[in-house]
């Protein structure tokens, strides 16, 4: 094929003991969390002691790893093959707990109490946009410092831009260096206890304006908060810087996760460039949900032409007045005498209320539905061909999108993961994704 | 207040479009802004997350922080667009409410604006929702509404309730004073019949689950839920009965008949090992996958129906979205009657 970028070999990456951190990043809805979990499971079953840090997993995926509660500590995942000497641990990030822990650890009890009770702190730590990123970085640093795992796999927050994750430590740093913080802290410092003595002359115009905007007591809350946090800022900043350097270190590998769609790949492209600019080590691109066909040699055009020919034949079939089963024929399909399945043939757009029942019997009843001559073979074959044509169009579209990415980033190694018909929500499913990831090329089904 | 207005509740004017990442909420928001701009109406499409998605969709250069016309709807309506920059919005806001021209710049120099928009992200969200509400309430030159409808491409479902409720939170923090008043005013608009929060989803498990959770959260917070938009619906190539039969064609006889039919259509030999015969298995495998998907979509659709919300469906546009496709989606929304959508309980 025209696409000849290097392929991303997942197993060597997982097996390499010097790989200590893998960060999965990418835009929303491309399967980051699933990828992170599948990598973790595979690495554990290949002998690594792994912890997967997930940010906001889908409920059923979390349950599959035994994460029923959000308790901010890694839990050992049961049901893993540990014969190779590995283990899998998983945790969900609890932002507020992480933030509280930092406060409690780094301030004396009285001050910690004051911070925890400050309304401004409460609202900040409850997780507005941004806090999640800081706390994910913080947690990563903590996990690394504990040194209990030889591989940490991180799923990144579903941010408005995936890049926020990278920006968090820097932004925190530059904020803490900002003059505004110093200004806010000045009165508290000058007056000893926070908010007691008010403002020296040089600042009065400034804070006067601020008071007017935010209201004096809100400003006082902020000042109290900032003053109380003051002692911790040094530590905050140090750790943020350390985590940032950790991300640049050789033991770290970034995986950009995407789906073969224009928007997702555009974002991936942006991310690849950004990682390079920040000297962050990119291992490669994981392309999820790639469609393949076992009959790729039959083009969409030929399949469609053949389908039409067969439909013409079927129309001449004696007794089979039914239009061929295709999207084009929305008309009443079928004649119940010829085709016993037809009674269930309501247009599936008008999902009827008792779909639960209907769906329940799909696979048990299908044998009885399949009378040998239920549908003329010509119609059936035509339907199969139309389905194939659609699949081939999807395959072609995806490969065009992929090629566009590859021509801009010819050096980025890629692992493709064939699309699964449904979502993954058990260990078996994660194992299957891991296998597909390791294969790197979606084998035709 | 609005309850006494008239017997028929008015259609919402602030449309907040959310959805799980990857469901195409920006596209749906844009199509909705176009759909609502029929019959000479004016709509404003607001972007709050600074990703430049709207400019890309309409194939124009990056939007500056100002309202500008980006499209003409069929029938002569206008779509305007605005990408809100939180920093500039804060300065704007300071200017508008406090005439703080110079002091505002001083604040910026000191990093206060950074502080407000980055570290105190609650304030940032207040500014974003505040700006949209301001546009909803703004009067035009002739004394009428400046915009007939405002459509916001909002943060994803996981964050939407917190995003919209931030004003409650901030009002709680400020307790009184100008920020408190502003926050309260914004909350009044957001919780009124003027607002509807629409959720975009795909017929897949996770997005539907997130939609169901999102609706529950919005309802619990007293925020007005509008409609569910099922996006990127794939064409029904094989109808379901055929799918089932195809999926269960295990019998030798049936397989041979299919092989023969394929061969008849000129796709090679039907004998064992012949080209047509070798096509049968992969084609049936694809049909099985299709059948599995159809069953899954049915389940997901039923789950959406349980929500009891007006539901709109948009087809998958093959080659990504370009301007033409956007108009098609807008047209489809219009045909499905979205401009008459009432908020929950408003019917």
TrEMBL record, chain A:
Residues 19-290 form the ArsA/GET3 Anion-transporting ATPase-like domain. CDD domains: ArsA (cd02035). InterPro entries: ArsA/GET3_ATPase-like (IPR025723), ATPase_ArsA/GET3 (IPR016300), P-loop_NTPase (IPR027417). Signal peptide: none annotated. This is ArsA family ATPase. It comes from Streptantibioticus rubrisoli.
From TrEMBL, chain B:
InterPro entries: ArsA/GET3_ATPase-like, ATPase_ArsA/GET3, P-loop_NTPase. Residues 16-189 form the ArsA/GET3 Anion-transporting ATPase-like domain. Coiled coil: none annotated. It comes from the Bacteria. Transmembrane segments: none annotated. Signal peptide: none annotated. Pfam families: ArsA_ATPase. This is AAA family ATPase. It comes from Streptantibioticus rubrisoli.
């Amino acid at each position: 094929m025209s696409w000849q970028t290097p392929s991303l070999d997942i197993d060597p990456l997982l097996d390499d003991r010097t790989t200590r951190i893998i960060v999965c990043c990418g835009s929303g809805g491309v399967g980051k969390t699933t990828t992170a979990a599948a990598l973790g499971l595979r690495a554990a079953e290949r002998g690594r002691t792994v912890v997967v840090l997930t940010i906001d997993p889908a409920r059923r995926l979390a349950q599959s790893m035994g994460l029923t509660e959000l308790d901010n500590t890694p839990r050992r995942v049961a049901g893993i093959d540990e014969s190779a000497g590995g283990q899998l641990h998983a945790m969900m990030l609890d932002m507020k707990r992480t933030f509280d822990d930092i406060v409690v650890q780094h301030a004396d009890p009285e001050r910690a109490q004051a911070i925890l009770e400050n309304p401004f702190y409460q609202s900040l730590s409850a997780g507005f946009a941004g806090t999640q990123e800081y706390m994910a970085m913080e947690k990563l640093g903590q996990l690394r410092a504990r040194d209990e795992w030889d591989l940490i796999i991180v799923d990144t927050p579903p941010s408005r831009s995936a890049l926020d994750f990278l920006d968090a430590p820097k932004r925190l740093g530059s904020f803490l260096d900002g003059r505004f913080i110093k200004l806010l802290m000045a009165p508290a410092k000058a007056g000893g206890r926070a908010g007691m003595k008010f403002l020296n002359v040089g600042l009065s115009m400034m804070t006067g304006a601020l008071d007017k905007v935010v209201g004096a007591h809100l400003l006082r809350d902020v000042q109290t908060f900032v003053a109380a946090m003051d002692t911790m800022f040094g530590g905050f900043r140090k750790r943020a810087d350390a985590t940032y350097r950790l991300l640049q270190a050789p033991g770290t590998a970034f995986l950009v996760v995407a789906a073969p769609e224009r928007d997702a790949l555009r974002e991936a492209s942006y991310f690849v460039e950004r990682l390079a600019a920040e000297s962050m080590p990119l291992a490669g691109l994981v392309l999820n949900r790639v469609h393949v066909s076992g009959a790729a040699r039959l083009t969409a055009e030929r399949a469609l032409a053949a389908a039409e020919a067969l439909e013409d034949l079927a129309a001449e079939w004696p007794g089979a007045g039914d239009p061929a089963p295709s999207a084009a024929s929305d008309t009443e399909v079928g004649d119940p005498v010829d085709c016993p399945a037809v009674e269930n043939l309501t247009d599936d757009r008008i999902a009827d209320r008792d779909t639960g029942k209907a769906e329940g019997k799909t696979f048990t009843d299908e044998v009885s539905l399949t009378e040998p001559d239920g549908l003329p073979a010509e119609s059936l074959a035509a339907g199969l061909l139309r389905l194939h044509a659609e699949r081939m169009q999807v395959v072609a579209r995806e490969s065009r999108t992929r090629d566009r990415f590859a021509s801009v980033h010819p050096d980025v190694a890629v692992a493709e993961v064939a699309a699964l018909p449904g979502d993954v929500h058990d260990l078996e499913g994660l194992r299957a994704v891991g296998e597909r990831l390791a294969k790197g090329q979606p084998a035709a089904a | 207040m609005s309850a006494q207005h008239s017997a028929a509740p008015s259609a919402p004017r602030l449309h907040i479009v959310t959805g799980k990442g990857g469901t195409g909420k920006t596209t749906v928001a844009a199509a909705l802004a176009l759909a609502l701009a029929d019959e000479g109406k004016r709509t404003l499409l607001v972007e709050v997350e600074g990703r430049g998605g709207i400019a890309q969709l309409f194939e124009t250069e990056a939007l500056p922080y100002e309202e500008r016309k980006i499209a003409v709807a069929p029938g002569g309506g206008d779509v305007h667009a605005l990408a809100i920059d939180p920093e500039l919005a804060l300065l704007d806001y300071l200017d508008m409410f406090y005439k703080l021209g110079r002091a505002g710049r001083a604040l910026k120099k000191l990093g206060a604006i950074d502080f407000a928009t980055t570290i105190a992200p609650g304030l940032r969200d207040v500014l974003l929702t505040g700006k949209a509400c301001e546009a909803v309430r703004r009067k035009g030159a002739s004394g009428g509404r400046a915009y007939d409808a405002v459509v916001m491409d909002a943060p994803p479902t996981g964050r939407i309730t917190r995003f919209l409720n931030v004003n409650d939170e901030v009002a709680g923090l400020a307790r009184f004073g100008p920020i408190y008043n502003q926050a309260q005013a914004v909350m009044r608009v957001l919780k009124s019949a003027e607002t509807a929060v629409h959720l975009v989803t795909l017929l897949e498990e996770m997005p539907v689950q997130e939609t169901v959770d999102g609706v529950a959260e919005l309802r619990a917070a007293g925020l007005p839920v509008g409609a569910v938009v099922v996006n990127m619906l794939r064409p029904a190539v094989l109808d379901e009965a055929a799918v089932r039969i195809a999926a269960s064609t295990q019998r030798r006889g049936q397989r041979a008949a299919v092989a023969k039919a394929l061969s008849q259509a000129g796709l090679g030999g039907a004998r064992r090992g012949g080209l047509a015969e070798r096509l049968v298995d992969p084609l049936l495998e694809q049909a099985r996958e299709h059948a599995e998907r159809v069953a899954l979509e049915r389940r997901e659709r039923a789950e959406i129906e349980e929500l009891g919300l007006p539901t709109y469906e948009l087809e998958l546009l093959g080659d990504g979205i370009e301007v033409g496709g956007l108009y098609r989606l807008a047209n489809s929304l219009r045909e499905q009657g979205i401009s008459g959508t009432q908020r929950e309980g408003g019917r």
